[in-house]
Amino acid sequence: MLAAAPALAQVQLTVTGAAVTVFSHASDACDAVDIPDAPARAIRTHDGTVQLYATHFVNRRLTGRTLLSVRQDCRIVFRGAENDTPDAFDDRSWLTALYTFDGVTVHAVVHTEFQGNRRPPLCPSGRYMDCWYNALTAAISADGGTTFSRPATGWLVAALPYRYDQVGLGHHGYFNPSNIVRDGEHVYMFAFATHAALQEGGNCLLRSGDIADAGAWRGWNGDAFAVRFINPYASDEKPDTHVCSPIAPNALRWPLSSLVRLASGPFVALMMNAARDGGVFAALSPDLLHWAAPVRLLPSLGESAWRCDDPPPLAYPSLLDPDSPGRNFEVAGASAWLFLTRFNSHACKLGMDRDLIRLHVDVKAAP
């Protein structure tokens, strides 16, 4: 059982002002697939430069002297090997969670998809969502985020204890790691799990005492951070102790895309409810385990709910404070920015034309 929750400071987040375009696909894209396809993450390097990553599987970054002045850099910083076998865990990959202590060495947790639909013998239906097998892997940069590579060994962060051919049709695995936050001697992140055999669907909380060791991450099992993730292609261990328990499913109802600690004390998580009556939701926690009911921060709808006469759909909310102390933008003060991907339509269709935008957010004590 969870311990009793500490007292939770009451905080109100309010979106103010008009949207500012950070990256325009029409004018800034380096090629057709250069799109913001993941929540925005930011770090400060050793020389004070800000790097912002909102990546596609061809991973690039935006750079600048401040968070609010970043511009697209067309150099490719990372891409997966597009390996045709699921046991390699090295097909298409998105840099999704980053952390640096010194601004030179940057550790990344990577959203890694095996897209079986691109290998007809492994996916008879040919449908992306039928044959999507996901894991979290590691990458590292030794040059302040200019280039990332996968370690030769010890690169698996979290995978289901089931092989590709054991999970059946659907999209299965651990997805979309949040940004990484430090609390005490450990770092934490969330990852979204879809249901697969003994793995329940929901947001799982992972903790590590050594971010340089991909195998050091442990998942919450309902009582402790005791879930050790295994490679199902290299281990015959029974799966029952190698799946995580979702945190507060009644509060964290949708995939968690952003995690920061407010200067006033509590953690705040952002989620996107993509339904027509949905939007960007925020939830507060004193300790990452206990979460208050989510509150809608911004009405909007997602790509799947969009109709031709609707406003542009939004995705991938992330909260970043330009004045956040430290290198990892893991704390937000009284003034922050909500970063989002905006989908632009053409002839009543949504395609690769996506922009990265930001909206100002006031953070105040609740009345």
List the helices and strands and how they pair.
Layout: E1 11-23, H1 25-28, E2 41-44, E3 50-53, E4 58-64, E5 71-79, E6 92-100, E7 106-115, E8 131-141, E9 156-158, E10 170-175, E11 181-183, E12 186-193, E13 202-208, E14 218-220, E15 225-228, E16 256-262, E17 267-273, E18 279-285, E19 295-299, E20 314-320, E21 331-332, E22 335-346, E23 349-365
Parallel strand pairs: 8-10, 16-21
Antiparallel strand pairs: 1-23, 2-3, 3-4, 4-5, 6-7, 7-8, 8-9, 10-12, 11-12, 12-13, 13-14, 14-15, 16-17, 17-18, 18-19, 20-22, 22-23
Supply database-style keywords.
2 domains; 367 residues; ten-stranded mixed β-sheet; mainly beta; globular; five-stranded mixed β-sheet
What does this structure look like?
This protein has one helix and 23 strands. By secondary structure, it is mostly beta strands. The protein is globular. The protein has two domains: 1-36 and 249-367, no CATH class; 101-141 and 149-247, no CATH class. The strands form four sheets. Strands 6, 7, 8, 9, 10, 11, 12, 13, 14 and 15 form a ten-stranded mixed beta sheet that branches. A five-stranded mixed beta sheet has the order 19-18-17-16-21, with no helix packed on it.
How many structural domains? 2
- What is the terminal separation in angstroms? 32 Å
Q: Tell me the major beta sheet.
A: 10 strands, mixed
Shape type:
globular
Helix percent band: under 10%
- Given as residue ranges, the uncertain stretches (5+ residues, pLDDT < 50) are none
Estimated share of beta-strand residues: 35-45%
Order of helices and strands: EHEEEEEEEEEEEEEEEEEEEEEE
Helical element count?
1
